[in-house]
Every structure is written in structure tokens, then in C-alpha cells.
Amino acid sequence: MKRTYKFLFSIAALGLLATACNADEDTGAGNGSSGGNDQGEIEIFSWWTGAGEEDGLLALIDYFEEEYPELTVVNAAVAGGAGTNAKAVLATRMQGNDPPSTFQVHAGEELIQTWVAAGMMEPLNEFYDEHDLLDKFPEELIEMVSDEGDIYSVPMNIHRSNVVFYNRSVFEEHNLEIPTSLEELMDVAETLQDADITPIALGDQEPWTATHLFENVLLAELGPDSYNRLWQGELSFEDESVVQAANQFAELLDYVNPDHASRNWQDSAQLVGEGEAAMINMGDWAHGYLLNDLDLEVNEDYGYFPFPGTEGSFNVVSDTFGLPTGVENPDEVKEFLSVLATPEAQDIFNPLKGGIPARVDADESQYDVYGQSAIDDFRNGVLTPSLAHGSAMSEGYLTQANQAVNIFVTQKDVDRFVESLESARDE
Ligand code: GAL
Fold first, then answer.
1. What gap in Å lies between CA 161 and CA 384, rounded to an integer?
2. Where are the domains positioned within the chain?
3. Dist. CA 414 → ligand 1 center (Å)
4. Would you say the CB of residue 322 lies under 6 angstroms from ligand 1?
5. Taking the chain (427 residues) in consecutive chunks of 10 residues, what is each chunk's mean pLDDT?
6. Which one of 33, 159, 300, 334 has the largest count of C-beta atoms within 10 Å of its C-beta?
7. Which CATH number fits domain 2-158+318-381: 3.20.20.70, 1.10.340.30, 3.40.190.10, 3.90.180.10?
8. Spacing, Cα 240 to ligand 1 middle (Å)
9. Ligand 1 centre from 75 Cα, in Å?
10. Is-above-0.85 flag for pTM?
11. CA 375 to CA 373: how far, in whole Å?
12. How many CB atoms lie within 10 A of CB 336?
């Protein structure tokens, strides 16, 4: 993946956002401002705070504290899907030399172009050697967390972005087949709309969910090769194929719930769980939510299929943790990293969280039918990076893309949209 050095912009942009976010009412278990580098204390910074997100994290913390009773974990999670608020709080802390012991960061450009390029992460090559980890993660993932031969974080999981969860009774009642192309998706959506069911649930109170949907329309329309070329700067956003994808995206937006702007990802997924909407395109953390929070049964109450037109591709989202420069107890932080790198910890965390383990030697029997199918799809699929979840482009670019998508959702001005996506590359 091509590097462009936009980290200063990224950090500045995030810092500006932080002021607004600090005022946010629900900051979850911690407020991200406590500082947690004291000896004996590990401060874990993430955005896993509730309804679906938190279960895996708390189970991981319990497991770690059992293994290391002499160390205490401070859970400094900041609410807001996809790091909406957490990333801004993190930027302020990093800039103020107050890093958490370790923090959730996506594999790919979010890690490399934002934190590594700014010289704020410690290389973990020796740690990988010491714990014999080099061949325990997929090569592609190690590559995504590496820069110029140095490895900078430890992957905790792999989520899939190009998946649709659907309400099985709604599909059965309306005799619907699983759509396998964008065209079929529109047909299914039309039938549902005629029957007064919301075809597609969206909750873009936090704009990343719409970016998430758009990236999957792009992948469906362009195919994995051109989709990848887009992020490498080899294909323009003003190309006819992207214009076509933007038109399809606009069409799909006609089929979403009218109150999309006041919902977050959890309560839009809930619409599907409860049968008020038929489908949602969300990463498979929604599987964890439907299963463990709404107590629904996969393949009974809800099913899943690849985002229509993207079968054979696996759009990768991976949460990782590294060692920020300047923490006072790096050896203790490495103890935490060494636990989260084990198959045992990954197999405790991921079945609750909904994704699959990053470790290649995890125990597959711990995963349900969805998890096992995702493990299989990851092994056999063409891997593509997620824009909405920090792998494809820098944090600065993503901030602008989210804004462009947010404007597009209301204005549906295709020319302006593709032009903003293209010009954001140079800013
Ligand atoms: C993603 C993250 C997932 C999940 C999701 C929704 O960016 O990788 O682990 O937290 O956001 O918040």
C-alpha cells in the first residue's frame, strides 16, 4: 500500500475534533484522560464500550488479570463506533505526551501513516522474535502492520466489512432469494419497499456507516483489482466506474430507513434483528451484537451473505494494539501484548466480538457457523482493505471522505462527490 505522508494533517485534524468529543455525554468506562502508565497499571484505550463492542474486551481483560494478577488494567474505552470519538481523544493525548499504555488501531494506513510516520510507536520486531509470532499471523496482516521492515502492532482480530446480515423471516415471508449482484439487491429492495418493509437499515448518526456501505458498493462495481488501484492512486475517483458506483450508492440510499441520521450502528442493526428492516451491511461485529446482545440465533433468526457483487473478496478490518513511545512501563505493556497475541486470548475475545482470530493456529471449534465460514472466506478470498476502517487510506483522507459521503447522503450530487474524493488526496 502506497504511503503518503499526511500524518501531521491527520493528527491536527483529529486534535481539532477532540475538543468537540470531550464534551460528548457517553464516554463509556473511562474518559480517556486518566493517564495510565504507572508501574503495575496497563491502560487499554479502545472504543469498545457497549452493546456488542464491550463483551469481548471485558472477557479479554478478565483473562489477562487472571494470568497477571500483579498487574491492573484500566479500561479507558471511549464510546462511538469505528473510533468516532476515541480517535480524537487519542490524538490529543498523543500530542500531549500522555499516551495510553496501548491503544486500538486498525492495521494499515491508520497505524502506519498516522502513528508510525509521526515516530510515536515502538518497533516490536524483538517482541515478535521472542514470542515466536512471525509465522502465527497471516503474512498479509504482518505486512499491514509493518513499515520498512519494522513491525508495529499485534493483531487481535479480523473483521469482514463486505457482509450483509438479514432477517430470515422477512425474506421467507416475501419469498426473497439472496441477492448476488447490485442489480438483484435493488430488485429485492424494491419488493420490500412495496411491502412497506425498510429494505436496508442504516444508522449514519456517525457518518462512517455510510462510508462503509459506499466502500462495498465500490468493491462490487469495480471488482477487487480496480478497487485496490483506487487506493494506490492508480485509478481516479472521477473514473467512469466510480461515477457509476456513486450512482448505485445514491439509488441504494432510497431504500434506507428515514430516521437513519439519528441512529448508530447498533440501533440500525436492531431494526434488522426485530424485523423492521430486512438487511444491513455492517462489519461482522454486528454478528456479535445480534448474537450476544439481542440473543438472536444465526441461521434461525438472521442469516448472512457477502455484499452482493463482492463474493470472493474479503474486505479486511483488523484491530491491533501496539506500544506507544514514551510509556513508563513498556515491559509490562508487552506482557499485555503477549497475552492478546495468544490463541487462547483471541479465542475468548473473538467469538463474543463477532469476528475471527488473527492467529492462524486458533481453535476453530470455538467459532460458530458464521465464524467458521468467515475463517474459510478469509483464507480463500481476495483480500481488500477497508476505507471506513482505516486500512486503505490515511486518517486525514478518511476524515475528508466521511465528510464527502455525509454531504452526498443528503445532496446526492455525484459530480461533486467524486471530485471531493479525488481532491482529498492532495490535501
Ligand atoms: C471498527 C472496529 C471494530 C468495531 C467497529 C464498530 O472500526 O474495527 O472492532 O469496533 O468499528 O465500532
1. 10
2. 2-158+318-381, 160-315+390-426
3. 28
4. no
5. 37 44 36 57 96 92 96 96 96 96 98 97 98 97 98 98 98 98 98 98 98 98 98 97 98 98 97 98 98 97 98 98 97 98 98 97 97 97 98 96 98 98 92
6. 159
7. 3.40.190.10
8. 31
9. 17
10. yes
11. 5
12. 25
